[in-house]
Amino acid sequence: MTTATLRGRFQWTVVVPVLAALLLVVTWSSHEHPVTLAAIGAALVGAVLAAVHHAEVVAHKVGEPFGSLILAVAVTVIEVGLILMLMSSGGDAASTYARDTVFAAVMITFNGIVGLSLLVGASKHHLVSFNASGTGSALATVIALAGVTLVLPRFTTSADGGAYTPFQLAFAAVASLVLYGAFVFTQTVRHRDFFLPVTSDRYGRVTGVIRDEDGDDHADPPAAKDAWFSLVLLVVALVSVVFLAKLLSPTIEYGVAAAGLPYGVVGVVIALLVLAPESIAAVRNALRNRVQTSLNLAYGSAMASIGLTIPTIAVAMIWMDGPLTLGLEPVQMVLLVVSVAVAMLSIAPGRAKTLQGVVHLVLLAAFLVVSIQP
């Protein structure tokens, strides 16, 4: 075995899932000590990052449209696993964890990932350009998903407290899957060129799309053995994430309560953790003047967070006790409406300056402030 091969086998993305699984086995029956809990928390974060990495490797190997689905499913497993483990602990805010996490994901993608991408991209390249038709269709899909799953429950009258009846929840789950599936087909099969990075002139006007030598705008796929290796590590990482979250969930709730913070902060923490890899990838693409890819990541993550998480939670509620509150609170609804309006104005021209990035990031800051202090 060569030195390069050995080095590849012992990268952090390989070591972390294995260590996380070993820690899970060792601490399953006894994990109350603060040092143990700190180790579990560190392993949880590392396993999340490693899982997304290996999902991207497998997705690249299988190609589209299945690659996008694999990556989305992997991220959804992480998000749903964290949500369900917190809900199963039966805390005071168990019924709102799903809503708070999904809404936080929407705010972080709409304003955090998009804002950072536009800011760093425009700061380096003066103007950034993207396909307004493709990005606009992604934004429209996310708006429809958020409206059906997060806004409508606050105004229905068949169930109290921002909840859906079982029939309404089933409809929302099916509608979410239909919208997500339709978009994936549009992005990866029917109108793929609308979502490729673009070239532009000095005024930011789009002049064409960027392709690689293979014509697919992707690096060459990994070897089959590397893809299978990543698949095994992906499964190990996902299992570790779900059950490490179960061990850590009482501590998370206790820490939030002890700090005097609202329980909605837990959802923000989960969303930040799950979306960290996408945020890093989006900024890197923006620096390379591929803001279209950054926007694909942002709105695709928001879409998966709603379109796959809500149906999965809906199915899980068959076996879980207690209500599921999905309807947004008034402050959350105002933030969503303002974010949607700003996003539409940012996308419509097909080009953006640093100003648009700053506006989005200020909205993200406003969301974080009212999450910490409503």
TrEMBL record:
Domain Sodium/calcium exchanger membrane region, chain residue ranges per copy: 35-188, 230-372
Transmembrane residue ranges: 12-29, 35-54, 66-89, 101-122, 134-155, 167-186, 227-248, 254-276, 297-319, 331-348, 355-372
Annotated compartments: Membrane
UniProt keyword terms in alphabetical order: Membrane, Transmembrane, Transmembrane helix
Keyword Protein transport: no
Entry annotated with the keyword S-adenosyl-L-methionine: no
A Pfam family annotated for this UniProt entry: Na_Ca_ex
InterPro entries attached to this UniProt entry: Alkaline_pH_Ca-Antiporter, NaCa_Exmemb
Topology of this chain in the membrane: Multi-pass membrane protein
Protein name (Swiss-Prot/TrEMBL): Ca2+:H+ antiporter
